[in-house]
Amino acid sequence: MSPNGTENDPAQNDPASGDAEPATLAQRLGVAPNRSPRVEGIGLMNVTPDRAAARRLAGGLREIIDLLVSTTAGADELNQAAEAAESFAALLRALPAGFSYKGFAEAANAGSELGDVLPGDDRWYAFFDHSPFIGLANPLSPPMFMEYLEDRVVARVTFSAAYEGPPGCVHGGYVAAAFDELLGATQAISGSQGMTAHLGVDYRSPTPLGRELEMVGWFDRREGRKIYCRGEIRVDGAVTAEAQGLFIAIDPEKFRSLMADRDG
Predict the structure, then answer these.
(1) Cα–Cα distance for residue pair 57/245, rounded to 1 Å
(2) Which residues pair with 195 in a beta bridge?
(3) Which residues pair with 229 in a beta bridge?
(4) Which of 5, 114, 138, 155 has the highest Cβ tally under 10 A?
(5) Residue 239 and residue 226: Cα distance in Å, rounded?
(6) How far apart are CA 206 and CA 174, in angstroms?
(7) Average pLDDT over residues 26-30
(8) At what angle do helices 49-68 and 122-129 cross, to 10 degrees?
(9) In whole angstroms, what is the distance from residue 234 CA to residue 217 CA?
(10) Superfamily of structural domain 25-263
(11) Above 50 in pLDDT, residue 111?
């Protein structure tokens, strides 16, 4: 949002703000054009030995993060654990730096560059394995598990003590970020995918830690390049938070520019 509280609208005064061309890359990736690879693509990914090992390491680190915020360990135990962690970091630091994957946040935005990619090619779906919310190879990920149920996206996630805000409750920032991930997948139902322009969250009641949360997202409407989605978090059927998201269908060239800037 802008400082005056209005929506940031990348499509405003944009001559190209009409409907985007239908994308076909999602189909070439084995995903329907009105579905997001972040939901269905991960299941198609070929899990190589390296990727399986990365997921295993991330799982161990995720548990360490969870245990650290609630441990009763003293200085001796903590120093011993710190030395072990530092040795693991030194092992990885000694290897060449770089990205262990190459991919696009949304396959529908990738344009023609991936025309020869085959369904299940781990090089492209690997992007999502590093997501801070759904990535099994990212220790910061809770993780969230998403699926399409008819015309909605349903996610299930349990936040540990590492995500605490108010006592016993999920930090509001993580609630908002989880909505961004959910609605980012939901926007694909429109037939196009883009980037977040505005996200509004209404916190109805505290969202508890250590409980399985059900998140539901649905496509609201589309106006040119503007894609509107809505969602909510439920705990035992009760709504604890609601969200409204605006996404702008992105030009493939702009996305390639972001990739080029990231890769230097």
Answers:
(1) 33
(2) 248
(3) 219, 245
(4) 155
(5) 27
(6) 12
(7) 50
(8) 0
(9) 11
(10) Hotdog Thioesterase (3.10.129.10)
(11) no
- Three-state DSSP at 38 gives helix
Q: What's the pLDDT score for residue 128?
A: 79
Q: How far is CA 231 from the centre of its chain?
A: 15
Three-state SS for 220?
A: strand
H/E segment holding residue 246: strand 238-249
Q: How many other β-carbons are positioned within 10 Å of the β-carbon of residue 245?
A: 24
Query: In the chain, which residue ranges form alpha helices assigned H by DSSP?
Result: 25-28, 37-44, 49-68, 75-93, 122-129, 172-186, 252-263
Kindly tell me the burial class for residue 246, based on how many C-beta atoms sit within 10 Å of its own C-beta (0-12, 13-18, 19 or more).
Answer: buried
Residue-wise pLDDT for 173-206, tens only, equals 999 999 999 999 999 888 887 889 999 999 999 9
Q: Which of these, 31, 88, 35, 38, lies nearest to 58 by C-alpha position? A: 88
From CA 229, how far away is CA 247, in angstroms rounded? 8
Of residues 163 and 250, the one with the higher pLDDT is 163
Active site residues: 180
Cβ-based neighbour number of residue 251 at 10 Å: 17
CA distance 128 to 146: 12
Span 133-146, average pLDDT: 93
Beta-carbon contacts of residue 106 (< 8 Å; ≥ 6 apart): 36, 37, 38, 184, 188, 193, 194, 255
The residue among 186, 110, 116 whose CA lies nearest residue 148 is 186
